[in-house]
Amino acid sequence: MMITIYLYPCYGPPNSKIIKSQDKSTWTAKEVADSVLADKSALRVTSTQRQAESQVLDAHTGEIDGQPYWYYEYLVRKAPTKTLQIVQADESTNYRHYVASTTERDGYLYSINASTLNKQWNIVGPILQKTVASFHLLPPTENYVPPFKDLWRFW
């Protein structure tokens, strides 16, 4: 069984083509998911293929300590479209099923996501959802360095 969990301590600023407002209280979970996924493609594909590469299944907003968190579940195609047409394999093996949570601090998005093969989702999905739901940023301390001050620490 293959499970992958990624913590992106600093993903970067929101995609301005998708999230146009600076007021994060107006952002929808779908916009945040689309913003993160638009810049995160791992496949070498054209921009049109990249848009079709992932599919958001569910998106909702929550709040922890007055801070908005955006939760979303999505599928990602494991191979470019042409390869999928040639392989003609079972649909459940062509996708990874992800669950993610993203929040914002100082103009940067922080995310955690967890995934497994789509065919394993019914078994491990609830565990991954619980893991991602536990993600939250701690209040900044005097040692906190925002990404825009020392960007080299984060990339």
Overview of the structural elements:
- This protein is of the alpha+beta class and 155 residues long.
- The protein has a single domain (3-153), classed as Mog1/PsbP, alpha/beta/alpha sandwich (Protein Transport Mog1p, Chain A, 3-Layer(aba) Sandwich).
- It has four helices and five strands.
- It has a five-stranded antiparallel beta sheet with strand order 1-5-4-3-2, with helices on both faces.
Please give a handful of descriptors for the protein shown:
about 160 residues, alpha+beta, Protein Transport Mog1p, Chain A, 5-stranded antiparallel sheet, 5 strands, about 35% strand
Strand content: 25-35%
CATH class: Alpha Beta
Annotation field: number of helices: 4
> Which regions have little confidence, pLDDT < 50, spanning 5+ residues?
80-89
**H/E element order:** EHHEEHEEH
- End-to-end C-alpha gap: 30 Å
Any idea how many domains? 1
CATH superfamily: Mog1/PsbP, alpha/beta/alpha sandwich
| Overall radius of gyration | 16 Å
CATH architecture title: 3-Layer(aba) Sandwich
Query: Would you tell me the overall average pLDDT?
Result: 80
Largest sheet, order of strands side by side? 1-5-4-3-2
The counted number of beta strands is 5
Protein topology:
Blueprint: E1 3-12, H1 29-38, H2 47-53, E2 54-64, E3 67-77, H3 81-87, E4 95-105, E5 108-117, H4 121-133
Kindly summarize this structure in a few lines.
With 155 residues, the chain is of the alpha+beta class. It has helices at 29-38, 47-53, 81-87, 121-133, and strands at residues 3-12, 54-64, 67-77, 95-105, 108-117. Strands 1-5-4-3-2 form a five-stranded antiparallel sheet, sandwiched between helices.
